[in-house]
Design a protein that fits this description.
single chain; 148 residues; alpha/beta; Nucleotidyltransferase, domain 5; 2 domains; five-stranded mixed sheet; 29% helix; 22% strand; elongated
Length: 148
């Protein structure tokens, strides 16, 4: 940083290198961080599908529900819930938060990430609980067979 003196009481500081370094750090961390994997649980191995494709645009209000191999359910924390009915209070809370923010429940999309060995009936029970609470949009995640 270069300091130029102009008189006894005036000092001018050149901020250009500091601003340049700040922008470089911001760019570095934006490239380094992968925001799409923030809600992923490593215990969930997605099933493969030839029809799987990434979403066209980011979801407006995603609510991620994950089913691990033994069928227990995770919603945003490390705690595992035994049944679909046990996440009803969490979903009700999500609904309340949406309404308190002035958003509609139609803005929310339930993202379901189920382990490849979880039975389809368990996924259907989760969807049923969500529908009873008036959630309407769902997105099921799978791994693309083409490697994308």
């Amino acid at each position: 940083m270069k300091i130029k003196a102009k008189g006894p009481d005036y000092v001018e500081i050149d901020y250009t290198p500091m601003i340049d370094m700040t922008f470089q750090l911001v760019a570095f961390f934006m490239i380094l961080i992968n925001f799409s994997e923030g809600e992923q649980d490593q215990r969930v191995q997605l099933p493969s599908s030839a029809l799987a494709k990434p979403p066209d645009a980011p979801l407006e209000v995603p609510i991620t529900i994950q089913l691990v191999q033994d069928g227990r359910i995770s919603m945003g924390d490390d705690k595992l819930y035994p049944t679909a009915e046990s996440i009803r209070p969490l979903l009700s809370n999500e609904k309340y938060v949406l309404e308190s923010q002035g958003r509609s429940i139609e803005d929310a999309t339930i993202v379901i990430r189920a382990h490849k060995d979880v039975k389809t009936g368990q996924v259907q029970k989760v969807i049923k609980v969500c529908q009873e609470l008036k959630f309407q949009k769902f997105s099921l995640r799978a791994k693309s067979e083409t490697g994308y």
